[in-house]
UniProtKB/TrEMBL annotation:
This is peptide-methionine (R)-S-oxide reductase. GO terms for cellular component: cytoplasm. It catalyses: L-methionyl-[protein] + [thioredoxin]-disulfide + H2O = L-methionyl-(R)-S-oxide-[protein] + [thioredoxin]-dithiol. Residues 18-142 form the MsrB domain. It comes from Nocardia terrae. It holds the Pfam family SelR. SUPFAM superfamilies: Mss4-like. GO terms for biological process: protein repair; response to oxidative stress. Its EC number is 1.8.4.12.
């Protein structure tokens, strides 16, 4: 997986000062999105959600994932096997906590979303699990009542 993580990540298109982010986000959102925190397992709003729609970045509103790529991994956080668009997220090597992981960031604002894991054996087309904090996302349900 580390070969996919690029250490020369382009600059975010949206750049705010820490104070501007604090004004825009709740303290819990700020801790996860801007300080790479993690919400507690099985507590997130979207962990088991099956609502069809688009998941956007809670910090900047950019489209990140779609419900069609969401699956139940039973890990305690929403899991996706691929982002909505290949350029929606950037990957960054993360050696914190004494282990090698790959951090997932919003490509637009570089907010922390979670981590991606590969080769865990889930029956998905990519064999990847984008393990994303619910608090990093906002679900925009599809209008299933139209028609």
């Amino acid at each position: 997986m580390s070969s996919d993580a690029d250490s020369s990540i382009p600059a975010p298109r949206i750049q705010l000062t820490p104070q501007e982010w604090r004004t825009k986000l709740t303290p819990d959102e700020y801790r996860v999105l801007r300080e790479a925190g993690t919400e507690r397992a099985f507590t997130g709003e979207y962990t088991d959600t099956e609502t069809e729609g688009v998941y956007s970045c809670r910090a900047c509103g950019s489209e990140l994932f779609r419900s069609t790529e969401k699956f139940h991994s039973h890990c305690g956080w929403p899991s996706f096997f691929d982002p909505a668009k290949s350029e929606a997220v950037v990957l960054k090597e993360d050696d914190s906590l004494g282990m090698r992981r790959v951090e997932v960031l919003c490509a637009t604002c570089h907010s922390h979303l979670g981590h991606v894991f590969e080769g865990e054996g889930y029956p998905t087309p990519t064999d990847k699990r984008y393990c994303i904090n619910s608090i990093s996302l906002r679900l925009h349900p599809s209008d299933s009542t139209a028609g």
